[in-house]
Amino acid sequence: MSISIVDTSEQSVAADTHYEDRCNLAAAFRMTARLNMDEGVANHFSYAVSDDGSQFLINPFGRHFSNMRAGDLLLLDAHADAAEKADPTAWAIHGAMHRNLPQARCVMHVHSKYATVLASLEESELPPIDQNTMRYFNRVAVDDGFDGMGLGDEAERLTTTLGDNRILIMGNHGVMAVGNTIARAFDELFYFERACQNYITALTTGKPLRIASDAVAEKTARQWEDYMDRIGSCDVHLREIREILDREEPDYKL
Questions:
Q1: Closest to 99 measured CA to CA, from 58, 147, 56
Q2: Where are the domains of the chain?
Q3: Which CATH class is domain 10-253?
Q4: How far is CA 214 from CA 6, 121, 126, 221, 236, in A?
Q5: Phi then psi for 58, rounded to 5 degrees?
Q6: What angle do CA 103, 107, 109 make, to 5 degrees?
Q7: Would you give per-residue pLDDT tens digits along the chain (254 residues)?
Q8: Does the pTM of the predicted model rise above 0.90?
């Protein structure tokens, strides 16, 4: 088992090899709490810091998203037998993801309100009714094999269900977003929740939905990808989050 617990003094944490990664991940936790997408001391974000994905940062058991600091994050080994300071479900799910899917550098799992409502419906597909929902057109995997709280076989199964997608709707459970960077994973999580909110709200009107054609939905999804890759919108998003926190909650960097 490889666990790194660092001194949380600013000087010591800033000297850590993965300091910027720690700050970015802590900032994502803080903003997720501000957006009311957290579940108190439950749910977890992780980020692989080794080339093979086996060494990863993750939140410790018992730390609220809104209190997360760079120095709180644990450094774990996905091939270890156990991780005593991590939540058991976090260790099972994120350990399996980083062990089996090294391309999923950052893994964010929450029970956010609207994504979880979608995950609770018999039909959990997200139709293309606006720009946000079109971002995920044919780009979401749905897991319908819920069998408990993510321990053992449940965790291993999730890694085979995601495929090449960046979003996994975890039926009867919540949502998982992945990305090659912390910025990309958070941006995916943020916009997917907004997309779900738009869809669920539209359903409450009881009116017919204005569903875009497959051609328009695919075109819009590709435009989103260009916007993220060429313009770097995800990095800008995280940069602005950190600027807000630098001004209002600078202790996230400790």
A1: 56
A2: 10-253
A3: alpha beta
A4: 50, 22, 13, 10, 29
A5: -155, 155
A6: 150
A7: 333 333 444 545 666 889 999 999 999 999 999 999 999 899 999 999 998 989 999 999 999 999 999 999 999 998 887 667 788 888 889 999 999 998 899 999 999 999 999 999 999 999 999 999 999 999 999 999 888 775 667 778 888 999 999 999 999 999 999 999 999 999 999 999 999 999 999 999 999 999 999 999 999 999 999 999 999 999 999 999 999 999 999 999 99
A8: yes
